[in-house]
Amino acid sequence: MQENHDLPRSKKEAEGRITLLAWDYNIDPYEIDEVAFGSKEVVGPFRKTTAFARCLTATTWSNLIYLFGVERIKERLDDKVLAQIWPSSLKEHFETLRDLLQGKSVPVSRLGTSFGHGPRPILVSDRWYRT
What we know:
Structural class: mainly alpha
Oligomer: single chain
Distance between the termini: 72 Å
Shape: globular
Strand content: under 5%
Number of helices: 8
Number of strands: 2
């Protein structure tokens, strides 16, 4: 693993973004990164795969890119991590994302809105047309 991470310049700069990843545990925010991408094997209840899965599901995509960078996400998004993600619709979303990041072709049906589902049909009321 590379030693020089593309982390934010200071701890304070990242704390607001990374605190959401482990809000329910008394863990230093940078320890999540050390488990997900670095040299540590375990911190609190998190192992490498569970820590990265938590990162994927607990914050926004823009925060993930800011905190970890696209290349690091691409390296770590594998089947072991995907197995930790639930519900299955969210897992399918990240499988599509992994395929896109790896440059694989993705069927258009997997690019729909709301985790692969097409647009929802509009409910049209006929109450105005009743006599």
